[in-house]
Every structure is written in structure tokens, then in C-alpha cells.
């Protein structure tokens, strides 16, 4: 009998699995807290920090609704000079350099790579 280890949340979906994937990738993840999902027209949203970057994760009822969430992420990012929002299926991931600690964009790039890798599994 062969037992394989659980990877990326053991088949879990949604925001919890996304957060776990960042932890599994060795990123420094703060506690994520619920935020008003209505402002993003989402089912559920949580925000926190990963590697000192502000991060928003929202889950939507459909892919079409998530597309609108990508556009709404600009409101969440506010005045941040550097920010990015990506969609995968019904999840929207947004990252903003509010503390201006990522001058060369390497942290934003690393976080987006973790988010995009989940789509390949």
C-alpha cells in the first residue's frame, strides 16, 4: 500500500485552500480575516498579508461574477502604486504593495506564481 502526502489543501477548494497553498510554498502568511464581501459583490472575502504585502482573496458564485471582482479589486487596492488582481475559476486574488516594500516587484511576482501554479494541479 502506498500513501501519498496531501498537497495544496487535500482537494479543498476556496479561500482556505488558497491560503494553505501560500503556506505550503513557504511564504510568510498572516492571519486572514473576513471582510465585507458585498463591497466586492462576492460570496466570501478575506484579507491579510503574505510576505508583508496586502492580499485579498474572494470567492464568487460564478466565473462571470469573478470577472467583475477583478475589476472591483482596484477599489480595494486604493492608492497603492503597485497592485495586481488575477482570477482563476471563481477565485480572485489581489495583492497590493501598500507599504512600498517591493521596489522591484519580485514579491508580487512570486505571489502570483504561487496563485497561478494551483491552476496546473
How large, in whole angstroms, is the Cα Rg? 14 Å
Instruction: Output the strand order for the largest sheet.
Output: 1-2-3-5-4
Report the order of strands and helices: HEEEHEEH
Question: Whole-Å distance between the termini?
Answer: 23 Å
Low-confidence stretches: 1-11
Strand content: 15-25%
Q: Can you summarize the main beta sheet?
A: 5 strands, antiparallel
Shape: globular
Mean pLDDT: 87
Percent of residues in helices: 25-40%
Structural class: alpha+beta
- How many strand elements? 5
Which key terms come to mind for this protein?
31% helix; 24% strand; five-stranded antiparallel beta sheet; 3 helices; 121 residues; alpha+beta
Task: Kindly describe this structure.
There is one protein chain. The chain has a five-stranded antiparallel sheet, sandwiched between helices. It starts with 14 loop residues before the first helix and ends with a helix. It has helices at residues 15-24, 63-77, 106-117, and strands at residues 33-35, 44-50, 53-59, 83-88, 91-96. It contains three helices and five strands. It has 121 residues and is α+β, with helices and mostly antiparallel strands. The longest helix has 15 residues, at 63-77.
Amino acid at each position: 500500500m502506498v500513501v501519498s502526502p496531501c498537497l495544496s489543501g487535500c482537494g479543498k477548494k476556496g479561500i482556505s485552500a488558497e491560503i494553505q497553498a501560500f503556506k505550503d510554498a513557504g511564504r510568510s502568511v498572516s492571519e486572514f480575516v473576513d471582510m465585507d464581501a458585498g463591497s466586492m459583490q462576492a460570496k466570501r472575502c478575506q484579507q491579510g498579508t503574505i510576505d508583508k504585502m496586502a492580499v485579498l482573496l474572494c470567492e464568487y458564485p460564478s466565473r462571470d461574477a469573478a470577472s467583475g471582482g477583478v475589476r472591483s479589486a482596484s477599489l480595494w487596492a486604493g492608492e497603492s502604486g503597485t497592485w495586481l488582481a488575477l482570477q482563476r475559476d471563481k477565485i480572485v486574488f489581489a495583492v497590493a504593495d501598500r507599504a512600498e516594500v517591493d521596489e522591484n516587484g519580485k514579491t508580487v511576482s512570486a505571489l502570483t506564481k504561487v496563485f497561478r501554479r494551483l491552476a496546473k494541479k
